[in-house]
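Task card 7
Instruction: Convert sequence to structure tokens.
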Amino acid sequence: MRTSILGKTGLTVSKLGFGAMRLRAISHTEADRVINHALDRGITYIDTAASYGDSEEKLGSAISHRRSEYVLATKTMKRSYGEAKQEIEQSLRLLRTDYVDILQIHYVNYPQEYREVRAADGAIRAAEELQSKGYIGHIGITGHRPELLARWLRDYPFATVLFHLSMVQPFAKRELMPMAESLDVGMIAMKPISGPFLSKVTESLRYSAASSAHVVLSGMQSIAEVDANIAALERSVDAEERAALEEMAAGLDEHGCRRCNYCSCPLGIRIPDTLIPSRYRQKYGLLEAGELMWQQSADKFAQCMTYEPCREQPLCQQACPYHLPIQAEIRRAMG
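Output:
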């Protein structure tokens, strides 16, 4: 397994990171097998969160006895000092550890949320306090709006940043990653296959790995997935392959969606899950689970075109911070 130094944290991490969110969908016994297999194969970066169901509990049960073998990151979505401190302490108990290497302030997508966590009684104060006592090694941030994350990296000395990076969501390359590089912030790229969507898994993983990200974080829930992901990233990406991957990805981001989730649809159309894979679907097809998810929204596309409250200006477009022509994109996806 190839490794890198995670920015200014100084931590040595595997190029492939284990995203533990999907552990909540499998049994404790299977989770034990999968995560120990991942460690045995050389994966040393483990990512979880308090909001990932029983993921922390399963990790604690499975690998706390191997604590020296991996870098452990967890997250809090709480915004206030008291709630964040309580949640972080609970995470430590569930993970059966005295410390986490990285505590990430999670899913910060609105400026108001950032103001809340940065306030005197905000979540960052709780993280700093626990850091000073040795329970936290480094403080990071996660979110779905790369241009805002870039701004916030200038405002506070976050040690790491977690963001989307894939063939269908390359937006972090434009502002966020250059800013992170200039500040020596550890970069963790998540969702390289965009959740359940991108069918060319190896190429998708290698596209993300061809970037300057220190870790490519992939959600895994089986030994087969662990082995396949490791195989995909065994060797580095050379200049010729990088160019081919960029050519493969060309135009797949024209939907413009960052998955910030500002929008919502009264008809139940999952807008990010519709827009983000739409061009990829037309060109390469989706994984089976992704196609099923996409079709759940597609069944409602015709209603979108005639829904009275959205005739003059669709409600989702009014909420979108990027002013995307969402209804036109849905019409395009209808063919």
